[in-house]
Amino acid sequence: MFRPKGDDRGQVLSSLVAVAAVVAIVAGLLVLFGTRGHDSLADEPAGATTPKPSTKPTSGPSTIAASIPGPSSKPTAPATTPTQAPSSTPATAPTTEPSSQPTQPPATQPPATQPTTIPPAERPAAEIYNNTPRKGLADSVAGRARQAGWTVAGADNWHGKIAESTVYYPPGMLDAANQLARDIGVSRTKGALDNMKKDRLTVILTSDYAG
Question: 72 in helix, strand or coil?
């Protein structure tokens, strides 16, 4: 049987001691660096699994917090918001609109349809006839004509068919007929018939007369 010599046993022991020393150093480093920066859990109750939050300030900025920008505490107004609304009114817009109303005639100019007034002394005489069943109509209208300044030559009944109440006039007495018609409330004038007198106006009242 082969047995190592005395020198060989010394070398083997020296190697084992060296290896053990290296292992001890490595284990010490692992223990040192493995427990560095952590709190001891000796005061935690048995069975507790939730660690306490660390109250020690971190030695360096967190990379997670640095990558997320925080919200600004002051609102920033958009740069494109106009500070004043533009005016939509053109600078050259006229201040007043032209009047579209036609020019009125001067107040001193009498209208063309103003009736002509004939003085009582120049008016022709008139005869008034009743062509309705109403009794006394001719006399009542004759009294109205006299109050307006007319001379009534007669009042009687008219026999025949007349379309509506009319003041008949001979040639040259149209203005007088229009004035008499206004005074007694008759709306129609017409040239005298052949059987009427040619020196006076003739009034025939029919059932349409409301005066």
Answer: coil
